[in-house]
Amino acid sequence: MPSTDDVKMAKKALRTTIANLLKTVSEDSIKRETEAVTQKIFNSEWFRNAQRISVYVNTEGEIETDAIILKALELKKDVFVPRFKRGQRQMEMLKLENALEFAKLDTTLWGIRQHHPDLSPLSYKDYGALDLVVMPGVAFTTSGLRLGHGKGFYDQFLHEHKQLYGKFPTTVGLALQAQMVDTLPTSEYDVQLDQVYRAT
């Protein structure tokens, strides 16, 4: 059994490897893979049946999520997106009211579009348990293991959700081909995803 320090070091090394790999992926490739993954999401029973959905807002080197967010809003689903604040260890998951509000999101911390820090939109907690959480990551396996960016935001969020509602929501990761690996280091706090969608 590897020690906690060994796992941390292995995760850090893998993040560096994937970051370097992503630098070689063209914007055209990301667009093509995004289109394929987005179609898989739209065709999935999970997306169709979910009413309360959390979706990450992508930054560089990730499957783009704009089309998923806009489609969910069009279908009158309750859509929630993350907000991160400097110095805080937990992210908020806040209601996105419509496409216009989405278009006006600020690009703030880490280049992520999110609600302005001065705004006070409703939290997912005002609506109840989430049905589906669409998550980013640095690396994924086909079995649903996920390597995050190292801040633990999503794992904390999911454990908080389980504490509040007695269950995890359905969890889905979106991956570029360059982010898929055979295996990755994990700790007891890492939540295994229900599904990872990739282009092929």
TrEMBL record:
Family: Belongs to the 5-formyltetrahydrofolate cyclo-ligase family.
One Pfam family named in its UniProt record: 5-FTHF_cyc-lig
Catalytic activity: (6S)-5-formyl-5,6,7,8-tetrahydrofolate + ATP = (6R)-5,10-methenyltetrahydrofolate + ADP + phosphate
Name of this chain's protein: 5-formyltetrahydrofolate cyclo-ligase
Cellular component terms per the entry's GO annotation: mitochondrion
This enzyme's EC code(s): 6.3.3.2
Coiled coil: none
GO biological process: folic acid-containing compound biosynthetic process; tetrahydrofolate interconversion
Amino-acid positions noted as binding ATP in the UniProt annotation, renumbered to this chain: 11-15, 146-154
Broad EC category: ligase
Required co-factors: Mg(2+)
Keyword Cell wall biogenesis/degradation carried by entry: no
Sites where the protein binds substrate: 57, 62
GO molecular function: 5-formyltetrahydrofolate cyclo-ligase activity; ATP binding; metal ion binding
Keywords, in A-Z order: ATP-binding, Magnesium, Metal-binding, Nucleotide-binding
